[in-house]
Automatic annotation (TrEMBL):
<dbReference type="InterPro" id="IPR030374">
    <property type="entry name" value="PABS"/>
</dbReference>
<comment type="similarity">
    <text>Belongs to the spermidine/spermine synthase family.</text>
</comment>
<keyword id="KW-0620">Polyamine biosynthesis</keyword>
<feature type="domain" description="PABS">
    <location>
        <begin position="1"/>
        <end position="221"/>
    </location>
</feature>
<keyword id="KW-0808">Transferase</keyword>
<feature type="active site" description="Proton acceptor">
    <location>
        <position position="132"/>
    </location>
</feature>
<dbReference type="Pfam" id="PF01564">
    <property type="entry name" value="Spermine_synth"/>
</dbReference>
<dbReference type="InterPro" id="IPR029063">
    <property type="entry name" value="SAM-dependent_MTases_sf"/>
</dbReference>
<protein>
    <submittedName>
        <fullName>Spermidine synthase</fullName>
    </submittedName>
</protein>
Amino acid sequence: MEERVFTDRGELVLRSRDGHFELISNGVFLMDTRSGRSERVLVRAALAAVGPRPRLLLGGLGVGFALAEAVRTDAVEIIVVEVEPAVVAWHRGVLRPFSEGALDDPRVRVVTADLAVWFTGTSDRFDAICLDVDNGPGWTIVDHGTGLFRRSGLAMLREHLRPGGVLALWSASTAPGFAATLDRLVGPVHTVRIPVERGRPDVVYVASCVGDDRGGVRGVRSP
């Protein structure tokens, strides 16, 4: 089975292989349904650093492991922002078992939009923002034009965190210098490396904010 769609960002393919599914963007492998360990760690690491009943935003739906993990928590609201309508549609069909039907959870709201564009039109703030977009800051497949991993993008994400909130980002590999940038712009960074069967470990960067005297957020440099 193979489904192929053409979007403003190029070609997106969902392909079945050996009982699993792969997502491929412009001919480059993005993710598959074989494990999901690092996507689950992304959510666990973020929510471990915030209080109970958090508001959670997931940037990117992918093959659904992060969302499935999120609905198992006590999150009071989960907003999923996914740029590709086809990905959302696949989760109402062949990918539903991997997101475990989480789109039907009443706490979940799916927004089909470019994340950076959506953020410019909302004042919503969250206890945790988890990003699983592209292959991470050091290896982008699609030229998003949004700069989420650049200084301006990280500053924008920070402004949508509540005081004490957490920004967690998934990466297919270590991105030299990125943790230092996160530390300066968001707050102290914790790096989690997740071993994979082949190749270098996946990486989750977790940056925590603190509140300022006006109730906003500011980055704090780690020692």
